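[09:14] KT: can someone run the structure on this one? pasting the chain below
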Amino acid sequence: MSVNLNVNGIAYQYPENGDVNWGTQATAWATAVSNSTLQKNGGTFALTADANFGSSFGIVAKYVKSQTGNAAAAGVLRLANADTIAFRNGANTADLPLAVVSDKLRFNGAEFVDTTSVQTLTNKDYVGTSLIIGGGTALTTTNATGTGNLVKATSPTLVTPALGVATATSLAIGGGTVISTSNATGTGDLVKATSPSLVTPALGVATATSLAIGGGSVITTSNATGTGNLVRATSPTLVSPTLGDATVTTVNNVEIAPAATYATLHLADTSSLTTVGGFDATLTFAATTNVTFPNAGNVLTDTSTNTVQFKTFKQTYDIQNSTKFAEFPDFFTDQLTSGLIPSTSASLVANIPSGVAYIRGTRVYLGITNKTWTASRDTYADLASTGAWTFIEVTNGAGAPAITANCMRIFSVVTNGTAVTTVNQLKTANTSFGLNALPVVTTGYDNIAVGQLAGTALTTGFSNALFGVEAGTAIIGGYENVCFGPYAGNTMTSGFSNICVGAESGSGIIGANSNILIGKAAGVTGTPANAITSGSNCVFIGANAGYGSATQRANAIGIGDAVTVSAANAWTIGKLGTVQYIKEGANGAMGVSTLVAGTVTVSNTKVTANSRIFLSTNTSGGTVGHPYISARTAGTSFTITSTSGTDTSTIAWEIKEPA
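[09:31] RB: done, C-alpha cells below
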C-alpha cells in the first residue's frame, strides 16, 4: 500500500514494498523533490514563508546580499546605502536602527565618532592617560599634576580668589616698581596710591620724601612708583581682581614656575580651580604637543555638551588592564591586507611596494621601500608593528630562521650572484577572528576563520570559510570548503567544495569533495569507518545521517535523523516508520474522485500528455471493476473509467511526471 509523502506542501503517493505499477508515483515524487529543493548552481529560490532553522544552528555563506538596488560589491554582509540593521530595545517598545546617513554610520539617530570630522560628544567620560585639544600640546599625568579642574589661559581672570601667603621674593603691581623682601620689610598693611584715602589716620605733618609705616621698611618715591592703590597685608583678600602677568613663583600655595617655553601650575593637595556662576573655564595652548592632563579630575564636563576637535585617543597595550578600551589584537590575528610583496628582478634591486598589514593590533602602512638584496642568499623579511623591516639572510637552501620577536614574516627572497630569482609570499590576504585562528597560513589566500583554533593547520588552501571552535582544524591544501559549527570538518585535509553545517558535521571527511552535510555529526554515522572519507557529491541532512557501511559512496542522498545510505547513486529519506504526507486539493498532484455509472472526469491543470497517473480503489461502491485512464486533455483534465458500468467506488489517484 503506497504512503503519502509531502514535498513543499504537496502530498505525493509513494509506493511501499510489494506495490506494483509504482514507477509513475515514484517519478512524480522524485520530480517534486528535484524541483522544490535548493540547487548548488544557485538561481531564484523564492520562499513562500519564513524559513526557521531552529535555535541551535545557522547558515554559512560567503556573503549575504540585500535585494535593494546598488548593494555593496564586497563584504560578507552587502547592504545598499538605504538599508538598515535594527535591534529591539530592552523595553520591547521600539526598534534601534543602525544606518548610514550622509556616508556616516548612525545608531538610533546618533552619529558614530570618527577621527577627522568635527563632532559634538554629549555626556562622555574621558578615561585615557593623555588628551590633545585643538591640535595643542598633549595633557598627561606627567606634565599636569594635582586634582580638580585644571585651568590655563594667557590672561586668566580669577573671581574672588583667596591667594594665601605669597612665597615670591618680589611682586610688580600695576606695572609699578617691584616690591620684594629686600626693599619692603616689616608687618602690617602696605598702601600706595596716587590719591589715597586714609580713614582717621594720625599722620602728623609729613615733609619727608619717604614714609615708614608701623616701624617697617621705608617706602619712598624711588622704590614705589605707579598709580592706583598699593596694598600689602599678611593675609590679604582681593575681591574680584583682574591679575595681569604674574612674576612671582608662588601665590597662596599655588606654585608658578616661569620658563622660556612652558609654564607649570602646581596646586596643593585637595586644591581646585573653580569658576563661579554661569562661566566657562577655558584651556588654551600655543603648542601642539606635550600637553598632558592629570589622571584624576574632570576635563570634559559630565553633563554638558562638549566639542572635541582633532582627536587623538591613545592607551598603552597591557592585557592585564581590565578597565581599558577593547584592543584589536584581542580579536584579530596578524594579517597582510595588501601589497608589500616584491617581484623577481634581473638584478639584485627589487623594491618592496607599498601596502598595509595588521601586526599586533596596529595598522601598518608602508610606502615603497627601496632595497638591494645580497647576492646568493635566501633573505627572510619580517615586519614589526612600528613599520620597521628586519631582513635575515641565510645561505641558499638553508632552513628558515626564527621569526623576529613581535614581527610578522611577510616573504622571502632568493638571489643568485646577479638577480632576484624567486620571491616566496609567506603571508597572504586572509581574515581571521579568534585566538590562534589561521596561525600558519603560507600561500593560502581568501580564507575566513572565525573561532578559537579555526583553520590551525591551513597553509596553502584558499577560499575556505571556517566558523566555530576548531572548525576545519586539519585543512591544509583544501579549498572552497564551508565549515560552520564547533569541530565541523575538523578531519578534512585536502577535500574541496564541501559544506559542513552543524557541530562535528563532516568530521570524518579527509579528501572527499562536493558533499553537503547539514546536522550535528552529519556524515559521521556509526564508527569512523562508516563516515565520509573520500566519497563525493553526497547530500546528508539530519543528525548522524551518513553512510551505512565502510564502502565509500558517491552521489548518495540521505535525509533524516540517523538515516544511512548503503549504496552509491542511491538515496534514503526518513527512517523506518516515516510517513509521507502529500497535500491534496484543487489542481493537486494527488486526490480522490467518485465514479458515477463507472466513470468520472477530474479537472486538473497539472496533467500533461506524459503524466503517469496511478489509480487505486479507495472506497468500494456498486459493482466494483478495474479503474483505468480512458482519456486526458493536457493542462485541463483526465477521465477515470471502470470496467464496470455500475461501479460507484471512490478512486484514489496520483500524478507523477517522468524525468
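[09:33] KT: thanks! Helices lie at 23-35.
[09:34] RB: yep, looked fine to me
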